[in-house]
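Project channel, design review

CF: Before we commit to the Conexibacter arvalis constructs, I'd like one complete example in the thread so the newer folks can see what an input/output pair looks like. Taking Choline dehydrogenase-like flavoprotein.
RD: sounds good, go ahead.
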Amino acid sequence: MGNRSDATPPAARQLRAGLRVLGALLLIGAPLCVLGALVGPARGFFAAQPFVAGAAGKAALLGATALYAAGDLRRRLALALVVLVAHAASVALALLALAAAATGGAADLGPLDTTVATVLWALVALDGAIALALGLLIAPAWRAGPAAGGARGGAAGGPARDDGETGRGASGGRALIAAASALAAAPDPLAPPGPPTAAERRVGRLCRALAGVAALAAASCVAGFLLHGTRDAFAQLPFVVGTAVLAVGVGLLAALVARDVRANLPLTGPLAVGLLVPAVAALAFLPFTDLDRPFPLFGWEPGVWLALVVLIAVAGALAAALLRAVGTAWRARERIVHLAPLQQRALLALADTLIDGRHEERVPPRDVAANVEGYLGAIRAKRAWGHRTVLTALELRPLLAAWPPLSQIEPAARRAFLERRFLHPPPWPRFAKNPTQVTIRVGQQLSFAGYYNDPRSWRSIGYVPFSRRGRPTERAAPLRLEVELPDAVEGDLLRADVCVVGSGAGGAIVAYELARAGRDVLLLERGPYVQPHEFSEDEVAMIGRLYGDGIMQQSRDFRFTIQQGGCVGGSTTVNNAVCSRAPDAALARWNDPARHDARIDLGRLADSYADVERFLGVHTQDDAVLNRSGERFLAGAEASGLAPDRLEVGVVRANVADCVGCGYCNIGCAYGRKLSMLDRTLPRAQADFPGRVRIVAECDVERIVTRRGRHGGPARAVGLRARLGGRAIGIVCEDVVIAAGAIASSHLLLRSGIGGRFGPGPRLPVGRGLGFNIGAPLTAELPDAVNAYDGLQISHHGLPRRESGYVFETWSNPPVAQALAMPGWFERHFENMRCYDRLMAVGVISGTAGNARVRRALTGGADVDYRPLPEDLRRLGRGLQQLGRLLFAAGAKRVMLNTWGYDELRSPAELSRIPRLVDDPDYVTLGTGHPQGGNAIAADPRRGVVDERFAVHGFANLHVCDASVFPATITVNPQLTVMALAHYAAPLIAAGGG
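CF: and here is what came back for Choline dehydrogenase-like flavoprotein:
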């Protein structure tokens, strides 16, 4: 988080370009060197495999060192000198070999008939030219001063000069001599202050020892081609010289690290490369080498296998010792537990670059990384590996463009790199562009979570947490709810009359109604039991505890975030409690024989809606502390002419009683005002039907155990297999109801082989037909503060009078969620967040076609394969245009759409751009908390998974009762419909069970 302007002088830019080209060529040359010994017409010349491996290591070491130097010339001009010295040493050693060694032997280069001496002279010419070119580039860059990496002002770690020679243009020779002082380490801006830790000091001692070993290795190579008793083994002099230069480079780098471990610890990266490459190359040579070929040493003639094994053992052991010591040092100095050092460095670099407040940031990058590290360690997501993988990819991605790892690029160049590759990506095909954009999007999410969840950032954006808003409110009392945790459950076999998997909107209601019908119910929940009085204002901590995959549940391509609750009470614990009945037209489509033929009794369903609304106290939230931007929404609807004729606007209906307006609906209401399944339904079930509802938390159901039907009869579910607190258990029951949510229920059926070709029942379209209520917000800046965060999160809605396929919802968020949805990059995003108290956000929610699919992921979780259809995006675009007119009529100064390239609209006339902006799902940011479908109700098993009794086709006692049974999306919030369907289904399940 420093100065992002790039004031690099022309001379330094030329040096940087030269180092990047050289580094890329050397890194390409390393594998080519190895391949030369394995394939091609010149294999005879590459026959001395131990030294070929060393020469490959030399190319890799110097290539990586050149890239590290190019990444930050302000601090690492010394590395350019290392590369120069190594090439000069190559020239000197080749000349020594020409003068004193036997160089008359033939060099078998396939069609080219030449001698070892000729190859050595070519090596002198090549490496000499490289050394000369580097010298000519380094000298003017050094004279250019600290912006280029010079020693003036200590920019490269050396003392400031006060004699004026550097500034007056000292000679190239004197500049190079002065540059040697750059070997004094420069401070690492991403390193913590303070003296080295004990682990870092151990790295320093190891590097000093490594420098000694390298010096001995270099001397051994020289002695090998000079001494009579070893000349035959060292006859391939070009590769012997390369191996000696590898030792020189390793020694120089090891000495540089040992000189100041804290500043130069990142330089162990090239050092490890220089040790690993020869070890790996030698290992690759073993199967393809004549292992008995002599390797004569003073009359002893062991096979060449021994030299290869010694190289593998020594280089491999040194690399392993170095990597282990460095890993321990990184963890000790950075205090990291859950991330690899490479990933933590990527986080540091991202936080330093993406959160750009022009020196007004309140949370240092180190603290941002520490916050994220703690978050990733706390979540339960099976796919948390994905975010760690993304961080690794972000750190290493610059290597593909001839840059060092991301954290080793100085801030201005790092920002330029990110802008070129991510903010304005080339017009690549989607398969090539997508991974690049995904990595930066995930990196941005993690950085913002680490920054804006820190209370130090809140004052700068105008956010006041509820605990400091001066509205004293008692927190919820402990619930009268018995939930068994793994340690309290005895034995490895549970028995029940009915087993319900999932405790959310569908599972809790069906459990209540089945208990009312006299059935004994065992309710299994994968997530933890978190009481409302345990909820806190810590967004990231609550997301980790209350959401099934934290922020990890995403579509297969990581573009589409799918938020679902993962705790006792399911998504009702963390949703906005909005209760809307499904439109009549949507229900009619469900029952249309030409479409889905669900055969739902709409009269009975209407009665179920009414019963659920009474039970949960659903009402219009006129008595709540509302999101204050809602008043502007209503005024804008009227001023734009949309209301009342074209748009029905008003306060939402919700199952909330006496809302206090904390604004934390999505991270759990700590004040007991949301009448969710956790707060209302489950406690009432145990109170109203004592002994009939048993709840077990942290129980991950892995498989439904089934039995084929006899004599052509229906199959049966005879039990479940699950993991409870890490141990395997079994559940035996008469009836099974799957209510784990639209994605998890499909995944469980798929894992159990249900609907598959070899399953116990008929072929069924399990996981198919999945749809969403996709959402895209418009964020408007108003002239004055509205503090939209202070009130019910979703307080007002807009319903088009004529069915349009979309609805409007006002919404607000605490800082992290707002930052993730906020348009803009770098300082623009930072400045937008500083307008937080003046922002008004309204989302357009649009039901999609059922073209998504749930699949089994290779990693064991669920994959969601989804890409919005063009008609879905066009409908969303129409809604956003209409909403934009409303927002400008409400007084908006500007309106922002969250797109990849950042699109800000300043007048109603610019709204015509919106359809073009949203026609590419890779460009506009979309999200949802409302997956629907995948196990649709349909009379025909070719169209759906469950029948009109909510039983899986072909099964007598296996039922599904959650949003996955929706035949098509309903556009409005689906939770009330899920609960109504569960109420509707319970008598059918109770009557047909057994």
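RD: helpful, thanks. The CA atoms of residues 473 and 762 lie 55 Å apart.
CF: The two ends are 65 Å apart (CA to CA).
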